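Support request, please re-run this one:
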Amino acid sequence: MVKDVEPTLAVGGIVVYIKVPNQRGSGIMNITPKEVRIRTLFQSSFYKIPRFQRPYSWDKGNIEDFWVDAVAGGKDGYFIGSMVMFGDKGGQELFVVDGQQRLTTITIFLAALRDTLVSVGEKNLAEGIQNVIQRTDIANKSRYVLLTETSYPYMQEYVQKLGAPDVKLTPSEEEKGIQSAYNFALDKFKVMQEAAGGKLEGAKRKTAIRRELEAARDKLLGLDVIIVQLDNEDDAYIVFETLNTRGKDLEPKDLIKNLFAKLMKPKNADVDPAKLKWKNMMDQIAASAASIDASTYLHHFWLSRYDYTPERALFEKVKKRVTKATAPAMLEAMLQDVEQYRRIFEPDSFTWDKEAVPLKRSLQALAVFKVRQPTPMVLSVLRAYRDKRISLKQAKDTIEAIERFHFMHTAVAGLSSSGGVSMMYAAAARELWGEADPQKRAKGLQEFQAKLKTRRPEKQAFETGFAELRYSSAETRNKALVRYVLERFDMQLRQDASVDYSKMTIEHIGPQNPKGAPALSRYAEVGNLVLVSEKLNGDLKNKEFSEKKKIMKQANLPMDPVLGSGPIKMLA
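Re-run finished. Output below.
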C-alpha cells in the first residue's frame, strides 16, 4: 500500500513513491534515483536551467563551505547530495529542478582551475578541463554543458569560455555573484599553486604544481551526487515545490515564481509573459535604494489584499487562491504595485506632485521611525490614491495619522507593537482594497484613524521619551529623529512649504563648547536645538547665546515665543 509521504531520495535503485494531488489520475509518481559522479554527469547530457528557477544566489559563505567540502578538505568520492531533473529519457538535454547552485559553482570552479592551469603553462590540462565544460553534441555542434538563461551571456563569455571574452559586459547583481565565486576560486587555486611550488625550482616546481592542480581537478570531477530524473515538467514542478517546502532553503519568492510559471505556460515559444513580468518586478526591486526584499514585498502585497498570514505560510496561501484563470491578473497587480511599495521606503527617489508633497514627508518620517508594521495599509492607501478610489486628502489624512501614531508610540515612547497592531493594519488594508462603495471607504478610513488615536501612548510615557531625545557631536544616535522634530517645529512656525530642509543643519542655541566656560549640562536636548541654513550655521559658530539671538533675528529665523522673547535663562 502506498502512503502519503514526503519525497525521500535513496541510493541503489530504490524506487520512492510520492502520492500527490495531481491532475493525471492516480496521483502516484515513481522516482528512481541513481548515484553518479560529476565527471559522468558532465559527459552524459547538457543541463538547462528552466524558467522557473531562481538566479545564481550563493554568497561568500556558501562558496567557502563548498570549497572546503569539495576541494580543500574533500576527497575523491565526496557526496554532495541529490539533484532533481526532468527530460526525455535518452535525450541530450535535461532541465535542472534542484541542484542549479551546485552545478553552477562546480562549473565556475572548473573554469577557474582551467585558467590557473593556463597561467602555469599547462595548456593540455587546461584544454582537458575545457572539454568537460564545453563539448560537442550529437550533431557535432560545440555547446556548453551547463546552459543558463538568467546570466546569459556573462556566464558563457566570462566563465565558460576558454580565452578572453568577445563581448564587454557590466555584470548584473546575479552576475556579480558569479564573478565573485570565480575570483574566489582563482585566488584559492593561486594559493594552492604557491604552496605546492614552495621553494622548489625548475622542473620540480612545475611538476609539484601540476600534481596539486590535477588532484584538485580529480576531487571536483570525482564528487558523488544522486540524480533523480523525472519524465515531465508537471512532475518537476510538484517535486520542486514539495522538496523545497521541506526546508530546502527556498524563499517564498522562489516558490511563488515557480507557481506562476506552472500556471502561466507561454503560448508562443518566443514570448514568455510570466517570465518577463516576473523579471521586470524583480529588476525594479533590485534597483531599489532601500534594499527591499522580494519575499517581504510579496508578503506585504498579500496582506494589503487578502487574509492575514505570517510570511512562512505565504506560499501555501497563494497556492490555494491563485488559479490558471486568476494568475495573470494577480501577477500584473504584483508588478503594478512595486512602484507604490518602493515609494514607501525611498520616497526621495520618485517625483511627487506639489499637492502630494505632504504624503512624501509622512513616508520620509516612517522611514526615520524604522517601522514596517503599517506597510500593508500604507501600500493599500497609495494604491487606492493611484487608482483614484480615494482623494488626495483622504490619503494624506490616513498616512499622517499613521505617522503621528508611530512618532508618539514607537519613535518617542519606545513602545513595541503587538501582533494585534499588525493584524489591525492588514485588516484595514484589506477592507480598503475590497470596498466598492466610496462612502463606505471614506467611513472605514475615518474609523481606522480614530482607532489609531485610541492606541496612542499615555501622556507620561510620551513626555518621558521626548525628554530623553538628545543630539550633539558626541550623541548622534537620535539625529534623524531630532531632525524630524525640529523640522515639524519649524514648519509650524514658518508655514512655508517651499523650504528645503535637506539643506538645513542642526544648531545648538547654547553652544556645545562655550569659550572660557563649561558646557551646559543639557545642551544636547531638543529645547536647545534649532534648524538653520548652512550659511547661518557658519555665522553662528560658537558664539554666546546673546550674539546668536541677534543674528537669528536679523536672518528672520522663525523662533517660538520663548526663544523670541526677552532675555531667557539658559538650561543649567
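The chain has four domains: 29-234, 255-350, 352-468, 470-475+486-564. Residues 470-475+486-564 form one domain.
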